Amino acid sequence: MGQDKLLVITDQVAVSISAVSDAIKKLRKEDVVEVDPLIITQATSDSLTSLEFSSIDDVVSLFKTLEFPSDQLLGNISRVLKPGGAVLFHFDSQTIGEQMKNPSLEHELILAGFLDIHRESFGMKCKKPSWKIGSSFALKKTSQVLPKVQMNDDDDLIDEDSLLTEEDLKKPQLPSVGDCEVGITKKACKNCSCGRAGDEEKVKLGLTMDQINNPQSACGSCGLGDAFRCSTCPYKGLPKFKLGEKIALSGNFLASDI
Amino acid sequence: MCLTEKKRENQLLILYASQTGNAMDAAERFGREAERRGCPSISVLSMDEFDPSELPNKEAVILVVSTTGQGDNPDSMKGFWRFLLQKNLTEDWLKGVNYAVFGLGDSSYQKYNFVAKKLDKRFSSLGATPIIERGLGDDQHPSGYEGALDPWMSSLWSILYQRNPRLLPNAITPDDTLMDQPKVQVIYHDTEEGLSPMTTSTDFNYLEMQLEKAHSMNPAKYSGKNRPDCFLKLTKNNLLSQVESGKDVRHFEFEAVSCAIDYDVGDILEVLPGQSPEALDAFMQRCNLNPESYITVVLTCFQVQVQARDNENRGFQKPSSPVKLKSFIELTMDVASASPRRYFFEVMSFFATAEHEKERLQYFASPEGRDDLYQYNQKERRTVLEVLEDFPSVQMPFEWLVQLVPPLKTRAFSISSSNSAHPNQVHLTISLVSWTTPYKRKRTGLCSSWLAGLDPNQRVLIPAWISKGCLPPPPPSLPLILVGPGTGCAPFHGFVEERAIQSKSVTTAPVVFFFGCRNEEDDFLYRDFWLSHLQKDGVLSEEKGGGFYVAFSREQPHKVYVQHKMREQSSKIWSLLSQGAAVYVAGSANKMPADVLSALEEIVSNETGVPKEAASTWIRTLERAGKYHVEAWS
């Protein structure tokens, strides 16, 4: 109270005291004579540039036009408002019916950063968030109420989670619990963080120097390359070779750590 | 929708939603198998190429869908799915439509095959008739999803045949012995006909032309892109991590050279990687191809007929002027990174002259050999070049190579710069992908290693596309809680740059950022940048109600991650949330987003005293209200 700064903006050339008073009462429940509002007429989006930011306590908008204030104007209102300040959009009585049919009024106010958005009989009311920089909050630890989340009008879609049954939601049966041994069954996840992927790499048969210098193959397939080797072949990962000839290890190959 | 419209008789529609190409492969396989069984009309389409309002007109639809990320739909399914979820669709909207769903998933995830399960349920609740119970492919199965696919597919064909023999006339005796025909024809030209005698002055114009021609000719679906949004030139390639750390994380800066670049923070840059000249040469040599020849690639007459009959115009038939063979391969065919599919091995077997190679290839292509193929090929990440070198007697005609070599795909990265802060530039933060294969071979990621090796002094032009990701740019008045460990900090680097600029003209809401890395020495990415914003009047400063918290996971014996830091700031997080803050989470590893979510639920529950379930539900409504965003990559 007292030195509160109240801003009234209107697109009209002139506005009556009673109209202003009426609107202020809806916002503040006090008479216009008890406050000294700053009134801007013929207001456009630019009209607020001369005002300092966070300098106004509350704003009342008395626009006659059918259109809801633009993003730019909303942005400017937000800029000049102090945190926690309220805005009242008082629609013209002749056009209010049409205006209130617009489903995106809340949406536009949300995008401009306002909270506590309500539809009223006369138009819209909302608040600028009141996070005070550097101050502490008294937290209601035992409150059972969570803040209402403003939703967009996307409720013409069904809730897809309702399509799942109890059965679907149960954690899937993994093949043989306790299957930490690396083998053919459970594979490491793509983003393995438990180390299984690393272990899977390590499960290899070691390769001796002799096997590299003088490779032999009982089955005859080892020298043909990975495509022909069995899963237990000691030469897996190595390039092709001829029996008895030293294997040429390419730069890509990591010698197995025994 | 006209209800009296007659259904297209004897037509099979196969729709797929693929994220990494597996569902697409499976869908194309269904298509080939249907073709072998004599199906007169088959359509195989990605869900984003199909208008869902046409569904009621279809006689038989097979849907092949992957579950990706945190139980999410693949991107190509989003529009289709949204359409299906509409409340105003009636219970008999799909009456008379026969359908079957096959899902590709991984049973080690909680939300195993959720996409397929939900799709199946939605279809039946809209009145469609299931042909067969849904099939669920599982990566955890020894042969991956194909373990479930083969038996499921057999049952599918027999039931379909019973219901309508004319749909699959050869179902009893499918044509296995007759080989399929290639879908394309390659025409060789002497010179680059059609090119104006005046050489084009700018190098990117030439590249653009080559790219467009090559893409318009390639039948494989590389990613549905044609003309790049812009061409970029690399201006900076700076290592952010310490060499000793064993990680290679870099900051890249690019300048747009072809046209002005325009993007929002949170957007994604997709680049087409280059391929190593050595690999390309090796490939062309191996396949006896002349790099200098000029070619055009067109659909065969049969394919043109098939497409015309289906009235699905892919805009592919128009022949363009010839393109250099080498360019065509370089720009559209992935020869040294992606693994070929099973069908590639099948076709190879027909062109193998050495008996033991032919046998082995046939074995790999058979159901019995599926496991071994998986070990040799997919698990080991065998490249096309490697496979061809392992089977030296195979001489595959170029037509088949064009059709079957995996298409060169673009790679997507979250943009780490703000366009307002850096006009005409775009920055990326990329970690080099490297791993050791099961056979102990060292491999690196195609795109990350190519970029890491680029020198800003060489004028290499990079085709790039801008697209929206999962992180919408926040208005300046929206308080933010950002969680981005490791390279997850990339988009938020852009967010902070952007907000710094905005704060010069409007009041900006607080930003709180949780970062994580291994230790302060090795990989504290953009350390100076974040700290500078902690200073007075910085975006993350206390004066502005902001905050910056780092979890160093390896600085102490026990692990400390971002979620631990979040719990330490419980009251701050709650105060921001209750003032309408939005939460953004980005980064790699599939556990992180879930851990962050869990921490948030705890915070909400502890600060307000409500039970955990209520907190959980409240956060879900945050998601639906567009105040909770996750961009996770693997």
Automatic annotation (TrEMBL), chain A:
It comes from the Eukaryota. GO terms for biological process: iron-sulfur cluster assembly. [4Fe-4S] cluster binds at residues 219, 222, 230, 233. A motif (Cx2C motif 2) lies at residues 230-233. The C-terminal domain binds 2 Fe-S clusters but is otherwise mostly in an intrinsically disordered conformation. One of its GO terms (cellular component) is mitochondrial intermembrane space. HAMAP family: Anamorsin. This is Anamorsin homolog. [2Fe-2S] cluster binds at residues 180, 189, 192, 194. Belongs to the anamorsin family. Residues 219-233 are annotated as: Fe-S binding site B. It comes from Salvia divinorum (Maria pastora). Component of the cytosolic iron-sulfur (Fe-S) protein assembly (CIA) machinery. Required for the maturation of extramitochondrial Fe-S proteins. Part of an electron transfer chain functioning in an early step of cytosolic Fe-S biogenesis, facilitating the de novo assembly of a [4Fe-4S] cluster on the cytosolic Fe-S scaffold complex. Electrons are transferred from NADPH via a FAD- and FMN-containing diflavin oxidoreductase. Keywords: 2Fe-2S, 4Fe-4S, Cytoplasm, Iron, Iron-sulfur, Metal-binding, Mitochondrion. One of its GO terms (molecular function) is 4 iron, 4 sulfur cluster binding. Residues 211-249 form the Anamorsin C-terminal domain.
Automatic annotation (TrEMBL), chain B:
Its cofactor is FMN; FAD. The keyword Manganese does not apply. One of its GO terms (cellular component) is nucleus. It is found in: Cytoplasm. GO terms for molecular function: flavin adenine dinucleotide binding; FMN binding; NADP binding; oxidoreductase activity, acting on NAD(P)H. Signal peptide: none annotated. Residues 227-474 form the FAD-binding FR-type domain. One of its GO terms (biological process) is iron-sulfur cluster assembly. Gene3D superfamilies: 3.40.50.360, NADPH-cytochrome p450 Reductase, Chain A, domain 3, Nucleotide-binding domain of ferredoxin-NADP reductase (FNR) module, Translation factors. Keywords: Cytoplasm, FAD, Flavoprotein, FMN, NADP, Oxidoreductase. Pfam families: FAD_binding_1 (PF00667), Flavodoxin_1 (PF00258), NAD_binding_1 (PF00175). InterPro entries: CysJ-like_FAD-binding, FAD-bd_FR_type, Flavdoxin-like, Flavodoxin/NO_synth, Flavoprot_Pyr_Nucl_cyt_Rdtase, Flavoprotein-like_sf, FNR_nucleotide-bd, NADPH_Cyt_P450_Rdtase_alpha. It is an enzyme of class 1 (oxidoreductase). Its main location: cytoplasm. FMN binds at residues 18-23, 66-69, 104-113, 139. It catalyses: 2 oxidized [2Fe-2S]-[protein] + NADPH = 2 reduced [2Fe-2S]-[protein] + NADP(+) + H(+). FAD binds at residues 381, 411-414, 445-448, 633. Its EC number is 1.18.1.-. Residues 12-157 form the Flavodoxin-like domain. The keyword Oxidoreductase applies. NADPH-dependent reductase which is a central component of the cytosolic iron-sulfur (Fe-S) protein assembly (CIA) machinery. Transfers electrons from NADPH via its FAD and FMN prosthetic groups to the [2Fe-2S] cluster of the anamorsin/DRE2 homolog, another key component of the CIA machinery. In turn, this reduced cluster provides electrons for assembly of cytosolic iron-sulfur cluster proteins. In the C-terminal section; belongs to the flavoprotein pyridine nucleotide cytochrome reductase family. This is NADPH-dependent diflavin oxidoreductase 1.
